[in-house]
Amino acid sequence: MKKSILISVLTIIVITVSSLLFNGCSVSKKVADKLGTQLWAENCARCHNAPAPGEFNNDNWEIVGMHMQVRANLTKTDVDKIIDFLKSANAQ
Amino acid sequence: MKTKLLILICIVTVSILHAQTNNPRSIGQNKFVVLGNAEATYTATKGESAFGDVNFKPIFLWKISDKLFAEAEIEIETGDGEADLGLEYANMCYMVNPYLILHAGRFLPKFGAYRGRMGEAFINRFAANPTGFGDGGIGAMNETGVGAEGGLPFGDIKINYDLYISNGPQLLTDPDNAGQFEYEAYTSNNKFSAVGGRIAILPFQNSSLEIGYSFQSKSKTGEVSTPYENVGVKMQALDINYFHNISGIKSTIRFIGELKHQKVDKATYKNAADEDFTFTDAPTSYYACATIRPSLADNKFLKNLELAGRYSFFNRPNDAPWGGSNVTQVEMALDYWLKWNCLAKFCYLKQKDNPSVFNAQFVFGF
Q: CB–CB of A16 and B71 under 8 A?
């Protein structure tokens, strides 16, 4: 058991350090160019129906974005694009 | 219990009032909202029918800063004949960078994809859990500990990861439940920890397919200073989730499946007559589900309908007091979506050696 804990802690450290060092992953141009609209449709629908843009106010979208980052392993980059798209609907 | 409920109702009311006064142009960093869902179920089986299982599950979410986030869910459930209050999770998260989150507290471990995700009432197309995936089932459910998680994009694919160290499950040794586990304990029964995690790959650039592998291991699960202290458990799960819009039939189809297995070290338990007994404790459960929804249809009524079918199986240890024959269930559901997170479910469950069950469930997300 001590060995498994050690391996897990080391794995966490390796992921932490490497992600801090590189602070970014190499994505294809097609993925990098995705708009918030597309990411919203793709990522929300992975588990549930996508909520409509007018569902929450801007503050609440930010909170929901962080919740989904935790629950669904979304990257911050994707969350930011999705939330910007959802907020833009409130501005209209 | 009444006092607890009263306090909870006060907290919820104040929280909602606070959340609703949060106007869109507010400039404070600390932001808060209450979301969640309510559920009510009607069940009819041979000779009996009743409304029951009314559940209320508020989720409290705080964005403390761009890096700090806290989430908590309280569950009030009535399925056992009284209002049962529980803390589903209270999880504090630190967003280290775009691809890494460190968290601590009570959390829903990503062991498979059903518990805490596909099994949520506004996501699950059925009123009941697949056999082996609900109460009395197997696999990690709630954990208290620390963990790291995130998503790592590479090229067109994405890898999701979760790793955690937690108190882990506690072995039950009473005659009726010997060899089963308490998966939702708030405290630990010994000084040993569990290690677990999930790694998933999303091989398509549109994230339509996710395949995950989960594990959890705890070398000592029994009460300290008892003969059961050294009984260990290893759990594994495989999950798959795929959805696709087919314009030809104006529909969205979805396939979901999950397999869970756990292996418990050999132990000798006492039955009600104080006699020794032992058994091979290695239960397995799995389910496969398919849904179709004409979500691209022009007709408003039709596009909100969804048809779902599910097969589930629970292989229980033959000689365990809680085991015996395997459980097989086939369930069909016709759902009507009132909103993206509100739906009415009408389900017919057929199970081997048990009467068929009709369930109607109404779920409102808020």
A: no
Contact between chains at B96 and A26 (C-beta distance less than 8 A): no
Closest CA relative to residue B60, chosen from A37, A20, A18, A60? A60
- In order of their start, the domains of chain A are 26-91 (1.10.760)
Smallest Cβ distance to B207: which of A9, A46, A69?
A: A46
Which among B229, B234, B227 has a CA at the least distance from the CA of B270? B227
Q: How many structural domains does chain B have?
A: 1
CB-based burial of residue B221 (10 Å sphere; 0-12 exposed, 13-18 middle, 19+ buried)? buried
Q: HEC states along B140-201?
A: CCCEEEEEEEEEEEEECEEEEEEEEEECCCEECCCCCCCCCEECCCCCCCCCCCEEEEEEEE
**Contact at CB, B205 and A43, closer than 8 angstroms:** no
Each residue's pLDDT, cut to its tens digit, for chain B (366 residues) gives: 556 655 655 555 555 555 554 554 556 788 999 999 999 999 999 989 999 889 999 999 999 999 999 999 999 999 888 899 999 999 999 999 999 999 999 999 999 999 989 999 999 999 999 999 998 899 989 999 999 999 999 999 999 999 999 999 999 999 999 999 999 988 899 999 999 999 999 999 999 999 999 999 999 999 999 999 999 999 999 999 999 999 999 999 999 999 999 999 999 999 999 999 999 999 999 999 999 999 999 999 999 999 999 999 999 998 888 888 899 999 999 999 999 999 999 999 999 888 999 999 999 999
Residue B188, chain A, CB below 8 Å: the answer is: no
User: How many pairs of residues across A and B have Cβ atoms under 8 Å apart?
Assistant: 164
Asked if the C-beta of B331 comes within 8 angstroms of chain A's C-beta atoms, the answer is no
CATH of the domain at B351: 2.40.160.10
- Supply the pTM of this predicted model: 0.89
Mutation for B interface: A16, A49, A88, most B CBs within 10 A: A49
Q: Which domain holds residue B294?
A: 2-22+29-365
Find residue B75's DSSP bridge partners: B86
Pick from A11, A59, A70: which is nearest to B26 by CB? A59
Closest-CA residue of chain B to A11:
B163
